[in-house]
Specification:
By secondary structure, the chain is an alpha+beta fold. The chain has a single domain (about 50-180, about 220-289), classed as D-Maltodextrin-Binding Protein, domain 2 (3-Layer(aba) Sandwich). About 40% of the residues lie in helices and about 10% in strands. The chain has 13 helices and seven strands. It has helices spanning about 15-20, 30, 55-60, 70-80, 90-100, 115-130, 155-160, 195-205, 205-210, 220-225, 230-240, 250-265, 270-289, and strands at about 45-55, 65, 145, 165, 170, 175-185, 215. Strands 1, 3, 4, 6 and 7 form a five-stranded antiparallel beta sheet that branches. Strands 2-5 form a two-stranded parallel sheet. The chain is flat.
């Protein structure tokens, strides 16, 4: 996230708009999610999906899981075996939930603020329910579903077929998320910005996108893979259900990890820890300019 700034990258929003991409040929919401305050500093090319895969009967109309309901969800759906216990430890678990909801800590001015109910819900849930070290037997929990391109691993097709992808626990019951696998950008200091854009534009061509191993942003390229219609429909439904990218500002996350331990171990109150986190992260953003 640190480099998404006109100080470093060219805003591609105008050039993307000029392409007049249409929804029948491209997954347009994948581009829309890349916008930051009306600007677009990178162009998505390939992505993957993550969440919980459930049968339609079990998923019903659910798009995600509220943190406050997650313990009940795990008992009902997974017989008490938390899929997130496939993560290594409490801090990793905490980071995963943070990354899934990081946009809730970003104000309209782009400044981070962790003094809100969303951050408190995540921190309190982890402190109350997650042990410092997660010890599980191999295969005792169902892992988080990571869905790559059909060309990458055709087993994904079997896993996805007839299933619904829903989001991991969050304060607002949001749906599943995307992870960018590859994207393109132009540095502000480039002396050949037009040539760079022509190269990027070529990367969106159907013939090029058809060769992608992960999920391409070109819908028609995706539809040309040799998958059954039912599998294709399940993929499309999963792709269309995503509304944001998984976000990680690793420097800010490291600061949070350092300070949150005092709360996890009962040495400081959550309010005191949040004050320290906000002060340190604010200084970080001021230094970035």
């Amino acid at each position: 996230m640190e480099i998404q700034s006109p100080k470093y990258l060219v805003d591609l929003k105008g050039k993307i708009d000029e392409l007049k991409l249409n929804k029948d040929e491209y997954f347009l919401h994948v581009f829309e999610m890349a916008e930051l305050e009306g600007k677009e500093y990178f162009l998505p090319l390939q992505f993957s999906l993550s969440g919980f895969l459930l049968t339609e009967e079990i998923a019903e109309n659910r798009k995600g899981v509220k943190i406050t309901d997650y313990q009940s969800f795990v008992q009902t759906i997974y017989n008490g075996n938390d899929p997130l216990f496939s993560l290594a430890d409490r801090t990793t678990y905490f980071n995963y939930l943070l990354g899934n909801s990081f946009d809730l800590f970003i104000g309209e001015d782009g400044k981070y603020d962790f003094d809100n109910s969303a951050f408190r819900e995540i921190a309190q849930y982890v402190q109350t329910n997650i042990p410092e070290k997660i010890n599980i037997e191999s295969g005792s929990v169902s892992p988080i579903a990571n869905i790559y391109g059909y060309s990458f691993d055709k087993r994904n097709g079997t896993a996805v077929n007839g299933k619904v992808l829903i989001g991991i626990p969050s304060p607002d019951e949001r749906g599943p998320y995307m992870r960018l696998v590859s994207c393109a950008a132009i540095t502000g200091c480039s002396s050949c910005q037009e040539g760079a854009w022509e190269l990027i534009r070529t990367m969106l061509d159907e013939d090029v996108q058809t060769q992608d191993m992960y999920i391409p942003v070109c819908r028609t390229a995706f539809e040309k893979t040799d998958m059954d219609k039912s599998i294709e429909e399940s993929y499309i439904r999963a792709i269309d259900s995503c509304s944001r990218y998984f976000i990680n500002d690793y420097t800010a996350i490291n600061i949070i990890n350092e300070e949150i331990q005092a709360y996890f171990y009962g040495q400081k109150s959550l309010d005191d820890v949040i004050t320290i986190i906000n002060n340190r992260v604010s200084l970080l953003q001021d230094e970035r300019g």
